[in-house]
Amino acid sequence: MQTPIIIVGAAGRMGSTVTRLARENAALLLVGRVEQTARMGDLAPVENCIDAENLESVLSACPQAGRKVIIDFTTPSYSLAVAQTAVKYGVAQVVGTTGLTEKEQSELKSCAAKTPIFRSPNMSVGVNVLLAILPELVRLLGDGYDMEMLEIHHNKKKDAPSGTAWRLVEAMADARGWASRDVSVCNREGLTGERPRKEIGVQSLRGGDVVGIHTAYFLGAGERIEITHQAHSRDNFAQGALRAAEWLVKQKPGKLYTMEDMLKHKGELQ
Ligand code: NAD
What we know:
Bound molecules: nicotinamide-adenine-dinucleotide
Number of strands: 12
Structural class: alpha/beta
Largest sheet: 7 strands, parallel
Radius of gyration: 20 Å
C-alpha cells in the first residue's frame, strides 16, 4: 500500500523539492499540501491532492485510509503547531525544520510520546555517517588537537549556526566528555587572548545559493585534518525525508526518532 503524505510549507525551497521527488516515488501518494495564503499561487496543481492554508482542513478532507505522514520543512513555531495537530489526528510527522529552541525541542518530544515523530536537522545520509565516525576520530587523535567547525549556507537561511553544525559540534564535544553548550564559541573579536584548549569555535558564512557546507577541523602541532561534507542540491535532504516518512509510518510513538535510529534499524550504521 502506498504511504499517504502531506507536505507542509509546500511552496518553500525544501517543500517544493520534496513535492517533486515524492511524485516520482511509487511507494508514496501525495494527498495534501499546506502553504500560507500568499504563496498558494506558487503551487502547481496536482491531481487528487488537497491544498489548503490550514493543516486541519487537509486532514479532515483526506479520504485515504492508513496512517498519513506529514513532511514539514517550515519554521520552528509552525512545526510545533503541526506536531500538536498531528497528535490530535494520530498522524506521523517528519520534521526537517531547524532552529528549534530547547523549549521547542522538549515540546516536540512530548508530542512524540503520543504520535510517531522523526526529527533530523540534516536529512542527508552522508552527514549522518559523518556524525557516526567523528567521535572515533576524536578518540584516535587524543587531546592534542584543537577542534573547530565552519559552515556555509545560502543568503536566505534564517538561523545560525546551522542545526547540522550544532549536531556535529555536539558529537565532537561528547567524544571529549565536554558539554557542547559550555565549550562552543560562535564569536571571536578583539583581544580574545590565547585559545583555551577546552573550546570549539563555530563560524557561519552566509551568501549566494550555497546549499550547505560543513567542515570539521582538527588542528594539531605541525598538521591538521579537515573533513568536509558538501550538499550539491536539496534533493539529498528531500530523499532523506521521504525515506524517513516510509520508515516512520511503521514505527510506534514513544520517542523522538532520529536519522541514527532509522539507519541503525536498516542496518546501514552499526
Ligand atoms: P523556505 O522559506 O523556502 O520554505 C518554508 C515554507 O514554509 C515557505 O513556503 C513558507 O510559506 C511555509 N510556511 C511557513 N510558515 C507557514 C505556516 N504557518 N503555514 C503554512 N506554511 C508555512 O525555507 P527552506 O529553505 O525550505 O527551509 C525550511 C526549513 O528547513 C528551515 O528551518 C531550514 O533550515 C530547514 N532545512 C532543513 C534541512 C534538513 O536536512 N533537515 C535541509 C534544508 C533546510
